[in-house]
Amino acid sequence: MFRYILKRLALMLPTLFGILAITFVVIQFVPGGPVEQMVQQLTKAGVSGETASVTNSLLRQSNQLSPDEMAKLKVLYGFDQPPLQRFIKMVKNFTVFDFGESFFHHKTVAQLIQEKLPVSMSLGLWTFILTYLICIPLGIIKAVKDGSKFDGITSLFILTGYAIPPFVLGVLFLVLFCGGSFWSVFPLNGLVSDNWATLSFWHKITDYLWHITLPVTASVIGSLAIMTILTKNVFLEEIHKQYVYTARAKGLSERRILFKHVFRNALIPLITGFPAAFIGAFFTGSLLIETLFSLDGLGLLSYEAVMKRDYPVVMGTLYIFTLMGLVAKLLSDISYAWVDPRINFDGEQK
Length: 350
Description:
This protein is mostly helical. The chain is built from 16 helices and no strands.
C-alpha cells in the first residue's frame, strides 16, 4: 500500500501540471481578456476605486488609448511577458500556494477563497450530511421491502425529485415560501440576517438554519436518487448471495443477518465514496442555487471570474479544485483497501 501511495502521489504532479497547462493554453485564445475589458471600461465610463488610481492616468481627453498606454496597461496585468514565461512563473508560485491577486477584486486569490469558502461549505456540507443520512436508511428499507407499495411510492417521489433540476426547485421555493404569490416564511436571500452579529448565540444558530433551509432542501432533493438507488441495489445484491442463505439455514434472525453480515459488506462501495464526497462538499456548491438565493460562494466567484476573464482567480480555483479532487480519489482508494482486506494495490496475493 505504501508503494501504491507513493506512485499515486508521483502521478499527481504530471496530472496537475497537464491540467494547468491545457487550461493556460486555452485561455490564451479566448477573446475579451482582462486588458480588452479594462480598455472598454476606460473608454466608456472610466473606473473608480483602487484601479482608478493606476489606470486613470492612461485615459486621454479623447477617451482613446495610445500604444504606449496600452503597453502600460499590459504591464499592469502582467501581459507584457511571453506566455511561456508567465506560465513558468505561475507554476513556481502555485507550488507555494501563491495564486496572485485578482484583476478586478483587488484582493489576493487566497483571500477571496477564504471569504467565499464558508458559504459554499455550508451549502455543500449540509447537502452531503443530509443526503447520506436520508439515502442510506431509505435505500436499506427499499431493498428489504423490494417490490412493495412502499418501494414503488418512494421510487416515484425520488425519481420525480431527480427529474426536476435543483434551480427549478429553488425558484419554486422562492415563489411559495419567500413572499412571492403565497407565503413569506423564509428569507429571500443571504446566509444570515443583517443584524446577525447583534443576536444571541442561540438566535444566531436559528437565524442561520432559517436562511439555509431552502437552498439545502433544493440541493438535497436532486441528490437523493443516485445514492438511494445505489444503496438499494448494493443491498439487494448482497441479500441474494449464498452466505445469506447459509446464515438463514443456520437459524439466524433476519435482523442479525442484515446488520451483522449484509450491512458490513454492502457499505463497502458507499464508504469508498465518502472521502471524495466529503472533500467535494467544501468546494462544489451549486452555482445556480447560490445565485438564486444570493449566496456569495465559490461557485459564483468562479463563474464571475470566467466571465470577467479574471485569470488569477480562474487558475487559482482550478488548481485548488484539481488538487483536492486528486487527493479525494487517493483517499477513496485507500479507504477501499481499508474496509476490504481482499484489496491489495501492491499486486501481492493475500
